[in-house]
Design a protein that fits this description.
By secondary structure, this protein is of the alpha/beta class. Among the domains are: 82 residues, no CATH class; 146 residues, no CATH class. The protein has a 3-stranded parallel β-sheet, covered by helices on one side. A 3-stranded parallel β-sheet has the order 12-13-14, with helices on one face. A two-stranded antiparallel ribbon has the order 1-2. α3 packs antiparallel against α4, α5 packs across α6 and α8 runs parallel beside α9.
């Protein structure tokens, strides 16, 4: 944390270092736990009207003022905002967004025109998806209205893009290559703005330039264990409602990439949808969280693994949320692990834009399953599933 704060151009004084030590005395490396302690101290000072909060007991006790706690919290927010400006100019990758562009392109362009728009939900704060979409030239709706002064207006998720004749101004058809983007934990370029209209206090979320976070004006990112409670407040509650609506639609498939099922408020929505929506398919992708290295090596050599359960092949799963999903006796849930589950390899498994777009939904699901079998078999990587799988639609 001290290193991140320094990289963001902030200076740590003695009280900052002492407070960090009190918050994380065992240096456990649990970032959320450290930040949760800081958030609780700040909330306690606010709610109880305390000028100082004391940590520790007896001779080891030390008090920190409300200002010291708030200042460190602001410095950490600036550090996170700076760390989320990716890809960095010195990342060493010639084309760092190539896999993201391919992922987005195949999801959008492989989709039949009569289907609803693809919807991307991300818990990430960075602007990688937005940058990749800009490079592709794809139009997208992210819930913000305006151009210069951009404000969050969730009613914009009810809009769409259509092509019109330039001469007659008649609508021709829906525009191609468009999608909806939802950042359900906020973003590195979001800030809150409190206003007053005719004596009525208002709270708005506005978009700002990335890198403008300061100690006095933090951006809307703060990954504490209290984020489930934060999800009940605006705008997160409304964004979570949109996620819930999306996964309850008929003939829906959910593809999770890089999500470890560590957020209870998101898990609750996905699990409830599995309980009440028989027409949903889930494909969870993770290269490491499902099998231990030795079992993964066995899986790579098992030609009969695809299409069977891990338990049936005597492959114990890890004690992780994704491991539990892999053990689930539900044909609507599939998992992909091993090298094929790395994002840069996953994008090659998605159907190419040239596929037959008239294929019906069940056949489209089987197309992805067959492509996974073919590629993982040929490359010697490990693809595993619990029975049937889902595609990206």
């Amino acid at each position: 944390m001290e290193e991140l704060i320094g990289q963001a151009g902030q200076a740590l004084d003695s009280s900052d270092a002492e407070l960090l030590a009190f918050l994380n005395p065992t240096d456990s490396g649990d970032l959320e736990k450290l930040l949760n302690g800081l958030q609780l101290a700040a909330s306690l000072a606010d709610q109880a009207g305390l000028a100082e909060v004391t940590f520790g007991t007896g001779e080891d006790a030390k008090g920190f003022t409300k200002e010291e706690i708030g200042r460190l919290k602001g410095k950490i927010n600036v550090a996170f905002a700076n760390a989320c400006i990716i890809p960095s100019s010195n990342c060493g990758i010639p084309d760092p967004l190539a896999a993201h562009r391919q992922f987005l392109s195949r999801i959008v362009r492989s989709r039949r025109a009569n289907l609803p728009r693809p919807k991307i939900f991300t818990t990430n704060y960075d602007l990688v998806i937005e940058r990749a979409l800009d490079e592709l030239g794809y139009p997208y709706i992210d819930g913000f209205s305006g151009t210069v002064d951009r404000r969050l207006n969730l009613a914009y998720y009810g809009l769409d893009f259509h092509r019109v004749e330039t001469t007659s101004q008649q609508v021709v058809a829906r525009a191609e290559s468009a999608l909806y983007l939802h950042k359900i934990h906020g973003s590195v370029n979001w800030k809150t703005k409190i206003g007053d209209t005719a004596g009525v206090t208002t709270l708005e979320v506005v978009q700002v330039e990335a890198g403008t976070a300061s100690v006095e004006e933090p951006v809307l990112i703060y990954p504490t264990t209290a984020k489930e409670g934060d999800s009940l407040s605006y705008p997160y509650s409304d964004l979570m409602r949109l996620l819930s609506d999306a996964v309850q639609q008929n003939d829906t498939a959910v593809l999770t990439v890089g999500y470890g099922f560590g957020d209870p408020h998101i898990n609750r929505i996905l699990l409830r949808s599995l309980a009440i929506n028989p027409a949903i398919n889930v494909l969870a992708v993770d290269p490491y969280a499902i099998l231990e290295k030795t079992d993964l090596a066995k899986a790579v050599l098992d030609d009969d693994l695809v299409g069977s359960t891990l338990e049936g092949r005597a492959l114990p799963t890890r004690e992780t949320p994704l491991g539990a999903l892999a053990r689930a006796d539900d044909s609507r849930i599939a998992v992909l692990t091993g090298p094929a589950g790395e994002f840069v390899n996953l994008v090659d498994l998605l159907p190419e834009p040239g596929l037959d777009l008239q294929v019906n939904a069940p056949a489209a699901i089987m197309t992805l399953v067959e492509s996974l079998e073919k590629i993982t078999s040929a490359s010697g990587t490990a693809g595993t599933s619990d029975d049937d799988g889902g595609d990206e639609e």
